[in-house]
Design goal:
By secondary structure, this protein is an alpha+beta fold. It is built from three helices and six strands. The protein has a single domain (1-102), classed as Yope Regulator, Chain: A (2-Layer Sandwich), CATH 3.30.1460.30. The protein has helices at residues 3-9, 51-56, 87-104, and strands at 17-21, 24-29, 32-38, 41-45, 61-65, 71-78. InterPro entries: TfoX-like (IPR047525), TfoX_N (IPR007076).
């Protein structure tokens, strides 16, 4: 996914910084990481407060295979499908991701 597409997805928050990391990209707003781009997929940050909302919307939690073949769940979730067709819905999900990023700093 190119940076212009990513910036458009997050435009409701304002400017984002996009940095290369781990073969993908980290997406930051106001100095806080709120999303990743991995294999051309955007993954939004969630936490104990917001993860259930992502799950209820059909989002998938990102996990990678750790040592001994065990799945390691990360605090990032796929973007719910309906958000790609509606900027207002996308704004809701990116706002939840930013709120989770703010809570992670506390």
């Amino acid at each position: 996914m190119d940076n212009n597409d990513i910036e458009e997805m997050f435009q409701s928050l304002g400017p984002v910084a996009i940095k290369r990391m781990f073969g993908g990209k980290g997406i930051y707003h106001m100095g806080r990481i709120l999303a990743l781009e991995v294999d051309d997929e955007i993954l939004l940050k969630a936490d104990d407060v917001s993860a259930s909302e992502f799950e209820a919307a059909g989002a998938r939690r990102w996990a990678y295979e750790g040592k001994k073949g065990k799945a390691v769940n990360m605090p990032y979730w796929s973007v719910p499908d309906d958000a790609f067709d509606d900027p207002d819905i996308m704004a809701h999900w990116v706002r939840l991701a930013y709120e989770a990023a703010l809570r992670a700093d506390k």
